[in-house]
Structures are given as C-alpha cells and as structure tokens.
Amino acid sequence: MSNLIHYPLDDFFRGFFVRPVDIGNSGGGEAPQMRVDVKENPDGYEVHAELPGIRKEDIHVHIDGPVVSISAERKLNKDIKDGERALRTERYYGKVSRSFQLGQDIDEAKANAKFVDGVLELGLPKKTESQATRLVVE
Question: Which residues does 54 contact at the CB level (< 8 Å), separation at least 6?
Fold first, then answer.
C-alpha cells in the first residue's frame, strides 16, 4: 500500500470543464478582433486594418487629435431560397471597433482612406506644430 501515486488535483480536472463544441445553427460567434498595422514616417502614419467581408459603406473612421477610431459592421444577409435551410453559420455578423492613440495630432484635412481587398488603408499626416509667435506691443 505504500506505492500510492499522488497526482495534483488540477491535473485531475484538466480538460474536464472544456466548453462543448457547438454544431448547431448559432448565428456567428465571438466578435473577431480587428487586426491593425501602424507605421510611422517623418510626415505621418500609415494604418492598415483587416476588415474582410465588410462593405466600404459600413466602415467609419473618426479622428480626434491623436486618437483614431475605426468601426465597421457586417450585416447578416439571409438569402435563403425556398427549400433551402442553413445547416451551419460560423461567420460573425455585427459590429467591431478599434481605437488607438498616436504620438502626435493628425491633420484631418489631409487624411485619406481607401478600402482595397478587405484592407482599410489610412494615410494620416501629422499636424504641423504651430510655432510660438511674439507679439509686438505698440
């Protein structure tokens, strides 16, 4: 009887509380995270955001000083014809958003955006810092 093997309790429960796999018609899962690449150059910032399956009309970009916010919505398209039924729906439908702060204010008037092949490309020029001026007292 002295040959008992002691296993820690956490090893016993490992994998026991795993969430079951959903095989049903569950209308999308968790909201995916928007993947973003940000590059800085002397004149400004370049941002690339992956937004696959979203129409450019459903993408909104808001700039407030150095803060850039991107939001998008993928709408559920229920084009089921007579005699058809959805067996499985895994794609996410709904809103996603992302905000981040850059190192310097953005010149909103010169900023540009284009959407090509599911990637949002933002050109965000830095706002020129205003020079201090000295007033002459008359």
Answer: 72, 73, 74, 118
DSSP class per residue in 82-115: TT---S---S--EEEEEEEE-SS-B-GGG-EEEE
Question: Which of 70, 67, 51, 63 has the alpha carbon at shortest distance from 110?
Answer: 63
- Taken in order of first residue, the domains within the chain and their CATH numbers are 28-77+91-125 (2.60.40.790)
Distance CA 107, CA 117 (A): 26
**pTM of the predicted model as reported, rounded to 2 decimal places:** 0.66
Residue 69, H or E segment: strand 67-74
Q: Is the distance from CB of 49 to CB of 70 less than 8 angstroms?
A: yes
Tens-place pLDDT, residues 95-112: 999 999 999 999 999 999
Is pLDDT at 57 greater than 60 in this prediction? Answer: yes
